[in-house]
Amino acid sequence: MLLTPELVRIHAHLCGDGMLCIYKSTEKDHRIRAQISYYNTNPALIASFQKDMHKQFGVTMTYIPRRFRIAVQSQRIARELLALSDYKTRTWRIPDCIKKAPCAFQIEWIKAFSHDDGYTPKDRNVIRLKCMNAAGLLDIKEILDALGIYNTFSGPNCDKTWFLNIRKEQELTDFVKVASRK
């Protein structure tokens, strides 16, 4: 699969606030179903994900506003996305094709993931990522270290989460987390 900025952002969003599941169905015509969903209370992020999915895979997604969810059922897309990695909360990883991609792709991944699992504390010049997946955050740390962007990793916290603090510099200087809730 050709690596594109859209695919990189899709992967990051699925690792953050997304879901990819394959399940057995009782329908005669479709014994196996696959669903790709993205949850976010920020309409701009929902629209961005929908646009990326349309450009990358040519699909129209269904938006369910009361659930803050956008979804599509497609075994083809699920297979292509699963070729990159797993998307479960505690086991997702950044694939080597993204780790070894040009800097612009790596920054796109970090920005997209940060919109889901990050926030920008008002009293510090950092992006703080909070996640249940230590190995996934260490993948991000590896990329940041290679880019020369200062970061610190800590945890586990009392709620079994981990923190990655990223100093806002280089391509991340103008990053601001758009509030998801009003």
Give an overview of the whole structure.
By secondary structure, the protein is an alpha+beta fold. It is 38% helix and 23% strand. The chain contains six helices and eight strands; from the N terminus they run αββαββαααββαββ. Helix 1 crosses helix 2. The longest helix is centred in the first third of the chain and has 15 residues, at 43-57.
Strand order of the largest sheet: 1-2-4-3
- Radius of gyration in whole Å, from Cα? 17 Å
* Class by SSE composition: alpha+beta
- Main sheet attributes: strand count, strand direction, barrel closure: 4 strands, antiparallel
Number of helices: 6
Count every beta strand, where a strand is a DSSP E run of 2 or more residues: 8
Shape: globular
Q: Low-confidence stretches at least 5 residues in length (pLDDT < 50)?
A: none
Order of helices and strands: HEEHEEHHHEEHEE
Give the strand content.
Answer: 15-25%
Helical residue percent band: 25-40%
Distance between the termini: 38 Å
Query: What is the typical, i.e. mean, pLDDT?
Result: 90
What attributes characterize this protein structure?
single chain; 182 residues; alpha+beta; 4-stranded antiparallel beta sheet; 6 helices; 8 strands
In short:
The protein is an alpha+beta fold and 182 residues long.
Topology:
Elements: H1 5-17, E1 18-24, E2 32-39, H2 43-57, E3 62-64, E4 69-73, H3 75-82, H4 96-99, H5 103-117, E5 118-119, E6 126-131, H6 134-147, E7 151-154, E8 162-167
Helix pairs in contact: 1-2, 1-5
